[in-house]
Structures are given as C-alpha cells and as structure tokens.
Write a structure and sequence with these properties.
519 residues; alpha/beta; Rossmann fold; 2 domains; 6-stranded mixed beta sheet; 34% helix; globular
C-alpha cells in the first residue's frame, strides 16, 4: 500500500508507476483504492463509476478498469453533502456525519471488492487517501490503516518535499499513528529538486529516529502529460502551454465544482494550442474557443457565473463568433432553463440558463452512466468538419465512417430535451446494469446553434480526428491553414506512463518492495 503524509503527495502517480513496473515484469497486477473522494470519474465497461485515478492505474496495469478497484467513490456536491457511489452506482447523498454512521455498510462493500480482486490478481497495489494520521477520523477509517491491516499489506509512506517540512511530516505521521506505525516499512520522498548531497544527512537521521529507511527520492517531474486526479493542480496555475506556436487559445471557465477537467488534457498534446483555465472576462472574450466544463453542482456553478457576470462574457464571445462548447454540466448551462423539482442538486426549482442552446434540462433521480459509441448525426456539421481534415493534407485518407464513429462516456443526472440531434449514440453496458432507455428508437445527444454546441459525452476530445477538426474549424475562421498533426492521444498517454515508470524504477529501491511483499 502507498500512503501519503497528505493530499497531493503523489500517491496516485506512484501507484500508476508501480502498476506498470510490475506489469512489465509479467505480473498480473491491479490497483485498489477502498474509498476515493474525487470529481474526476470514469465509467467502466459495465456502466459503473470509479475514480479517474484508478482507471489510469488500471491502464498502467494493462487491464480493464473495474468498479472493484474503487468500491466507494465520494463526489462532493456543496451544501447538499457528498454523493456516495458504491460499486459504481449511486447510493445516496450524505452529510459527513451520516456517512461516518454508514461505515459498517461501506466497509462491507470494500471487503467484497477486495476479496474479488484478490481472487483474480497476483498482486494488488493499494492507494491510501489523504493522510493516515488524521487522529479525529481514525475510528471511521476504511481506506488507510484499516485497509492495510485487513489486507496484511506493508505500507510505503510518501512525503512531498516540494511543500516543505517533509521530514516533520514523515516523523509526525509515525508518531501520531502509534502502534499502527509498525505497518509502515519505508519512506519515499517525492518531488525533489536540488542537490541530493544536501538531503542525504536527513535521510540518515529520519531512519535513525524511526527505524524506517528512505527507499526512494523521486525527482520533480514537470510536464508529466498524465491526467491529474482532482482540481488541486488547477489551484497552482491555470495556464497550460505546449511547445511550439500558440495560434489557438482555448479558455475553460474554472468552475468551483469543476468535474472531469481531464476531458481537456488531449488539447495539451496539440502544438498550436494554448489552454487556459480562467474566469477573467478578457480571457473569455478574446479566446478562440471557450469550453464550459462539467460540474458536480451545475446550478451552483451557473449561479456563480451569473453573479460574476461571466455568463454575459460568454454571450459576448458567442456574438463575436467565438466557438462556444459545453460538456455535460456546461452543456446544461448553455441551455434555456434547468429544472430541479425534486431538489436533486439544489433548492432551486428552476434556474434560467445562459440561453445559447435551444434545450431545457430537468434533473432526475436516476443517474445515467455508460460508455458510449456515437456518430455525428448532423450531416452539415459532419461535412464541414471532415472536409477540414481532408484539406489539411490532400494525401491524407479519411473515410466518413471512421471519422463519424466516436467514443466517450456519460455521467449525468440531468435529461435534456429540445433541439437535440448533433450525435446519434449507442450506450454500452452489460445486461446486469441496464441503462435507462426503454424503446428501440435511436438515442440522440447534443445540440448546436451557430457557433455554439454542447454534448453529454465526456472523453469526446480523446478522439484524435474529431479533436483536430474542432481546432481546424477555428483555424479556418482565423484564416489559418488547417493542420494534420496525426497526434494519437492514447499513444502519448501510454508513453507518459512508461516514462513515469522508468523514473520511479531508476530512483526507488524496487528490490526492497519485492522483499517486503515476498515477491
């Protein structure tokens, strides 16, 4: 088990690296996080919802993500509390005290998942959450030391030296854990930059004081090109620029409850794109593309946009001909109205939207979660975008069918109606997890109105040809030549996992880990 001295210490990426390291050695390995609190989520093949980090770790292990890898997912919803997702399905929304009283049921779900994984895989690499030394929460812990003891798993504790006070954090964690500290076998210091000789005396002293060695000092890795688990990264900087020219500026309003912002990571691979998270009116009104992202509290984020007059900036951008895109919650916000008669997400029965799309949305008690295949149903839109790709390279072969077939996933409780028909979709799920659709009629998604369009489909920009066509559409409007960059996001992500694994293997004593797990 990899635990951390606090949030953001690097647990998720270290687990990712270890999954790839052991998989490359031919070991059948899987990730596991008993309880995750994150707004970035992923939909498994059977329609279950798990943390995005566990999906990435499964990808590193070269296995299909499954709900057993993250049996409990908590999604903070503001004043309403947190949505509690068990084995991939919504259970209820609870306040903190209600959830802690729910511990016995939650723990039972964790045990079930861990048992199933244990029967299927040779090695499980577990991830803790936050810090194991939160002394006010130890009696309700189901993810840190409780899980380590249940699995009889040795623990490696990670500290973030970039934040400062790493030795105090490591030492303090050991002291606060008391007898449970015996499960911690070693330390890792993460995000180091500087002269290792200056650090060396501290490594000896922390071993002398705790009896536990430092088995790795990992360097600070910039531009890792892998999805972040939560919005913490956005709080440290909102501008992401790739090398090369920056002819296309994409602005994403940084919502308070932003979710699945990893939807936009593929743009970081495009050499002509600058990506900015901002609620500055000047950024929005001078962008080339504005994308309203998903939100775990669509109504509250919409009201905040209105309070800060950002909705007016979005409308002004639209009037200037700037391409406006909405994904999931952002799609809902761009419509005429949002209804919440049952108080699913807020106390507002109705809220007016930004009004750029001719749709209305109502929140339902049933959450739609599904992997999706989609075809572009709007023929004029398909023709315009596919021709842009063809014009980028006269010798570039592109069939309409290959461009039309898109992959993504849905995670939403709202159902929209109105001028809908941008995409024709097919929801994929196992017979045991039916998706709420009870007729043989085709399912349509998405709406378009001039230079504004929206969809419920997360992950749509991971479709390489589609992403490039969206950028080329804007290039054409700026009288720039369309580009055929042939960038494969999936390949870039896999190469980034390999680089991460190589860096961890080079700077960590993997032999020590093999010894403590008796591998």
């Amino acid at each position: 088990m990899i635990q951390g001295t606090g949030s953001g210490a690097g647990k998720s990426l270290i687990v990712t690296a270890l999954c790839r390291i052991f998989r490359n050695e031919g070991i059948n390995v899987a990730p596991f996080k008993a309880q995750n609190m994150a707004l970035n989520s992923y939909i498994t093949a059977d329609g279950g919802e798990i943390g995005r980090a566990q999906a990435l770790q499964a990808e590193a292990a070269k296995i299909e993500p499954a709900t057993d890898m993250n049996p409990i997912l908590l999604k903070a919803s503001g004043d309403m509390g947190s949505q509690v997702i068990i084995h991939g399905k919504v259970h209820s929304t609870m306040k903190a005290k209600e959830y802690y009283a729910f511990k016995k049921t939650a723990w039972s779900a964790v045990e079930e998942s861990f048992k199933r994984l244990s029967n299927k895989y040779e090695l499980i690499i577990m991830e803790g959450a936050g810090s194991p030394a939160e002394i006010n929460l130890m009696d309700v812990d189901i993810v840190n030391m409780s899980m380590s003891k249940h699995a009889k798993a040795p623990v490696i504790l990670v500290g973030d030296i970039d934040k400062g006070g790493v030795f105090a954090s490591l030492y303090g964690t050991i002291k606060l854990l008391g007898r449970d500290s015996r499960y911690i076998k070693a330390f890792i210091i993460n995000k180091f930059r500087g002269d290792i000789e200056i650090l060396t005396p501290g490594l000896k002293m922390i071993k002398d004081r705790t009896g536990k060695p430092v088995i790795g000092v990992l360097p600070y890795i910039k531009d890792i090109e892998l999805p972040e688990e939560d919005g913490l990264a956005l709080s440290h900087g909102s501008r992401f620029t790739v090398h090369g020219s920056r002819e296309i500026k994409i602005v994403i309003p940084k919502l308070q409850y932003i979710s699945n912002f990893t939807d936009f990571d593929p743009f970081l691979c495009e050499h002509d794109v600058e990506l900015i998270y901002s609620t500055n009116p000047a950024d929005i009104e001078n962008a080339d593309i504005v994308i309203i992202p998903g939100s775990k509290n669509t109504v509250k984020d919409l009201l905040l946009l209105k309070e800060r007059c950002i909705d007016r900036s979005i409308r002004r951008a639209y009037e200037k001909g700037i391409q406006i895109i909405g994904i999931c919650g952002g799609y809902q916000m761009l419509g005429k109205s949002i209804y919440d008669p049952d108080g699913i997400e807020s106390n507002y029965k109705k809220v007016d939207g930004i009004g750029l799309l001719n749709i209305e949305t109502a929140f339902k008690k049933t959450k739609i979660t599904a992997q999706v295949e989609a075809e572009i149903a709007d023929s004029s839109w398909l023709l315009a975008h596919s021709s842009l790709l063809m014009n980028a390279n006269k010798n570039y072969e592109l069939s309409a069918k290959s461009y039309q077939l898109l992959k993504g996933y849905e995670i939403h409780m709202g159902v929209s109606k109105g001028d809908i028909g941008l995409f024709k979709i097919k929801r994929l799920s196992s017979p045991n997890t039916p998706i709420p659709h009870h007729s043989n009629a085709p399912i349509f998604d998405g709406s378009i109105n001039g230079n504004c369009w929206g969809t419920y489909l997360h992950g749509i920009f991971e479709n390489d040809l589609f992403r490039r066509s969206v950028i080329n559409h804007t290039r054409q409007k700026k009288s720039l030549k369309p580009l055929n960059t042939r960038i494969e996001y999936g390949k870039i992500k896999d190469e980034a996992i390999e680089r991460l694994a190589d860096a961890v293997k080079e700077n960590m004593d993997i032999g020590f880990i093999k010894k403590v797990i008796k591998l």
